[in-house]
Amino acid sequence: MVEDQEEYYDYDSEYYKYDDEEKTQDSVCKDSNGNVLQDGDSVTLTQDLKVKGTSVNLKRGTLIKNIRITDNPEEIECHAEKVKNLVLKTKFLRKH
């Protein structure tokens, strides 16, 4: 008599497909025009922005140098004229 054996499924390989290409494509940081941003790039603001928590307004056309890419592809870290450790959304930026 043959005993019934439980079937074993390798769920990780069979049902879940992990593609490294999709992760890298989604995590690419792009500006408002679709240009790829990298660490150290210079960008300009496409519209006036009020900085939360301060009385500073950043004017359209302000040049921001030496940006840093964050884990979130929609945000960058930078230093502006009067504000340090500033996080900006990439939809308000244009690569210079």
- What is Rg? 22 Å
CATH superfamily of the domain at 29-95: SH3 Domains
Q: Specify the biggest β-sheet.
A: 3 strands, antiparallel
CATH top level of the domain at 29-95 is Mainly Beta
The helix/strand class is: alpha+beta
Second CATH tier, the architecture of the domain at 29-95 = Roll
Amount of beta strand: 15-25%
Q: Spell out the helices and strands N to C.
A: HHEEEEEEEE
Task: Name the shape in a single word.
Answer: globular
Number of helices: 2
Count of strand segments? 8
Question: What is the helix fraction of residues, given as a range?
Answer: 10-25%
| End-to-end separation | 77 Å
Kindly report the spatial arrangement of strands forming the biggest sheet: 4-1-8
Low-confidence segments, given as residue ranges, are: 20-24
**Average of per-residue pLDDT values:** 82
CATH topology of the domain at 29-95: SH3 type barrels
